[in-house]
Write a structure and sequence with these properties.
With about 500 residues, the protein is mostly helical. It is built from 20 helices and no strands.
Length: about 500
């Protein structure tokens, strides 16, 4: 059930009625049953993998000795060794399942190509959301081990923490210390919060169905037949894709947060106008925040973070973003995408250190230049992210500047646009409307929260905005409901 489909909307309505209409002490049970049904409706076999991951994690934390700090030194050492063993068992099981289902075939093929060893190809389904719930589970294991949160003894409520359906498929990757307390406590009806969640869901639906899906038609057309396109058309489609993936992924997050809010939950924000970042490091403070902060807390800081020497810091950046690339997918495209981000961020750190410690000067770069630099680097990297293989990415890089001297020619620009839209002026108008909408949304959000702006407007104006939002979803949505880009990660 994709968010936005009629079947999902019916499922959501029934779940809300049962959740708010029944006894508060059974709210967790309603969420558990609904989340289980939501996940198993995709493919029942997925449930086996997530059940093993959840059960092993639960058993490991329940066996950890939380009172080891109060014991004698010898007993404390024994308890710590036991806790470490349980931690490694839980993490190893989760990462092992992730490797088996997502990465085994990639590494088997790579090893076969590099040596005489021939490993089998496993015909396994990739469980939906496995990268997201695996990282959430690993974070929970670390948090319990480090004493940041007490283990959740109620298996049913722990299962809700894992399966909570708004964030299950594509995040945000929630932290146990924030989400678990919300599950263990009953929730009271709050009309304002419910309305706020409903508006946020509708806003995310607009981003997905009207903006992302309409932009996807152009992007998919070009990447489906790359050999027909060169020069400016490739540059334009990369720019379009940059806004498509933002609208698609941030749209999912808005819908997930909106649904959660309707149930009385608060999920973390995942985006903060990333294309208004002034550096690539700043971009990752704004893009996929739940992943970037997870990598910082559970990988970058344990590696030494910024407390070590400059070159070690740069190595830490590279390691983190290689892991980030691998997390996204088992292809060389994603690995090189991560390497590119790691190298650029390391270069930014080296340049900053050189200016401050060697030159000992302060350089103020105009924001417009910083925005342009960051956006250009991100768009260049998106080629690796969107291309189906390295050959396709190489084709784009090689041919995107072909005929660059003609880029200012009106006739060349007109021919490029006609080729992209196949002379379909209605599609062209819808795509331009989608681009204008997402750019304006991001521009306004970079200065003021859109929700707070709307609250200050007269009722009539707010009503017009909401009617326009719903009308555009009904009239301008692409036919059918397509998968979110991050669904298969």
């Amino acid at each position: 059930m994709e968010f936005g489909s009629l079947s999902f909307l019916f499922f959501l309505f029934i779940t809300l009625v049962l959740y708010w209409g029944g006894p508060k002490k059974f709210q967790w049970l309603v969420l558990l049953l609904a989340s289980g049904y939501f996940y198993f409706s995709w493919q029942p076999a997925y449930g086996v993998v997530i059940f093993i991951s959840m059960l092993v994690s639960y058993v490991c934390v329940m066996l950890m000795d939380a009172k080891s700090e109060k014991t004698k030194k010898s007993a404390k050492t024994t308890a710590n060794l036991k806790n470490k063993l349980l931690l490694f068992t839980g993490i190893g099981t989760n990462l092992g399942l992730l490797f088996l289902f997502k990465y085994f075939n990639f590494f088997a093929l790579t090893l076969t190509e590099l040596s005489a060893v021939k490993l089998p190809h496993l015909e396994l389904l990739l469980p939906l959301g496995i990268s997201f719930y695996t990282f959430q589970m690993v974070g929970y294991l670390f948090d319990v081990y480090q004493g940041k949160i007490a283990p959740e003894k109620h298996l049913g409520k722990f299962a809700v923490f894992v399966l909570f359906f708004p964030k299950l498929i594509a995040g945000p990757i929630e932290r146990s210390k924030k989400l678990l307390p919300q599950i263990t406590q009953p929730h009271n009806w709050n009309t304002n919060e419910f309305k706020s969640g409903l508006k946020l869901f509708a806003f995310g639906l607009f981003k997905k169905l009207v903006i992302a899906d309409n932009l996807a038609r152009v992007v998919d057309q070009v990447f489906g037949s790359l050999e027909l396109y060169r020069g400016l058309s490739l540059i334009l489609v990369i720019l379009i894709y940059s806004w498509q993936i933002l609208a698609d992924f941030s749209g999912y997050t808005d819908m997930a947060r909106g649904i959660a809010r309707m149930f009385g939950f608060k999920l973390m924000e995942n985006f903060n106008t990333p294309y208004f970042a002034t550096s690539l490091r700043d971009f990752w403070r704004r893009w996929h925040i739940s992943l970037s902060t997870w990598l910082r807390e559970y990988l970058y800081i344990p590696l030494g973070g910024s407390r070590v020497g400059l070159w070690r810091v740069c190595l830490n950046y590279l390691i983190v973003f290689v892991v980030c690339g691998i997390w996204h997918g088992a292809t060389w495209n994603f690995i090189l995408w991560g390497v590119l981000h790691g190298v650029v961020i390391a270069a930014e750190k080296l340049a900053e250190s050189f200016v401050q410690q060697v030159l000992k000067i302060k350089i103020t770069i105009p924001k417009i230049i910083s925005y342009a630099y960051t956006y250009a680097v991100v768009c260049i990297s998106w080629v690796l992210f969107r291309a189906t293989d390295l050959q396709s990415a190489a084709y784009v890089y090689k041919n995107m500047v072909v005929g660059v001297k003609n880029f200012i020619s009106p006739a060349y620009i007109q021919a490029t646009i006609i080729q992209l839209f196949l002379s379909n002026y209605l599609e062209m108008a819808i795509v331009f409307f989608a681009l204008f909408s997402i750019i304006m949304i991001e521009a306004i959000s970079s200065k003021y929260p859109i929700g707070s702006i709307l609250k200050k407007q007269p009722f009539a104006l707010r009503l017009m905005v909401y009617v326009g939002l719903v009308s555009s979803i009904v009239l301008l949505r692409n036919v059918g409901v397509t998968e979110f880009i991050y669904t298969r990660f």
